[in-house]
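Protocol check, entry for the methods section draft. Step 1: assemble the input record (protein sequence plus ligand SMILES). Step 2: submit for complex structure prediction. Step 3: store the structure tokens unaltered in the notebook. Ligand used here: flavin mononucleotide. Step 1 record:
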Amino acid sequence: MSAYPKTAALMARGAEFLGSEFAILCGAMSWVSERHLVSAISNAGGFGVIACGAMTPALLDAEITATRALTDRPFGVNLITMHPMLTDLIAVTARHRVSHVVLAGGIPPKGSIEAIRAFGAKVLVFAPTIALARKLFRSGADALVIEGSEAGGHIGPVSTGVLAQEFLPALAQDHIVFVAGGIGRGEAMASYLEMGAAGVQLGTRFAAATESIAHPDFKKAFFRANARDAVASVQVDPRLPVIPVRALKNKGTEEFTAKQIAVAQAIDAGQLDMAAAQLEIEHFWAGALRRAVIDGDVERGSVMAGQSVGLVTDELPVATIIANLLTECEAALDKRRLVA
Ligand SMILES: Cc1cc2nc3c(=O)[nH]c(=O)nc-3n(C[C@H](O)[C@H](O)[C@H](O)COP(=O)(O)O)c2cc1C
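Step 3, stored output:
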């Protein structure tokens, strides 16, 4: 019998779907979610996901092989839908018989869901609206992740609390839905599970785990930060689109604002055409997550973090983080019975 019987009961559908002990995913984080963190999560009973991000097919191939050497439990691969080599990356996951593929970063292009299902893998997708979620389920998606704006990394405009109220009553009975964004403790997990979620996905809480290869200065920035330090990037000028990213504010985020103002002024002065201006904005953060995660440049790099960073105060092994989450979740569910 599980040490967390109520939690296990509420997670049963999600855990069965993932093939893991608990329906706790560690969302893919570029540069962070590589073989060590992914295998540690899966070995601890959660579900790790390799972040493919900007990887070439050859790098992904090597990463899957290396992860398999560290765990015999299931894990997933996250592919970014606008990656120019998406078809080749899917072929790599097929060759390795990866059990779960997460399609992130936009609407899956035609044929991609079918190509993944064709080799027997399950497909997880993101959707910003219920209508699109239903469409993706009709196209063969096996599960949905709803991710609120509290999350670290690229974000949508709506909070997890509101998305959960919209999506879970509408979809969770008939479909597998995981909730992500802003989850730092088990009490929050308990609430979403009670609302019908099949499981949860966390990123920020795991990014600074012992097994994470993130630079010690990246982790220290997490331990120091409060929730309010994890801010969404701001768009200064309507002509210069900025994809919202939540990261710790630092010199880089200040300089990004100044850069946008300077570029907008250059357009007004006729010194830059629109395409060149937009490219300057787009390129500002190129390589910035790597600089923060790998090189430890937490001043000018992009220290992507969700608001739950305020709850991350020390470096803990993945197994301890998962045990803490489960203990908190179970205690919260136990308390419900006392009220009844
Ligand atoms: C440092 C960092 C990098 C991330 N990179 C990616 C990514 O490459 N692909 C992706 O789908 N999500 C990415 N995310 C989002 C996570 O997978 C996860 O959904 C999110 O962190 C969950 O919210 P939380 O941060 O509040 O726990 C990233 C998040 C962080 C903190």
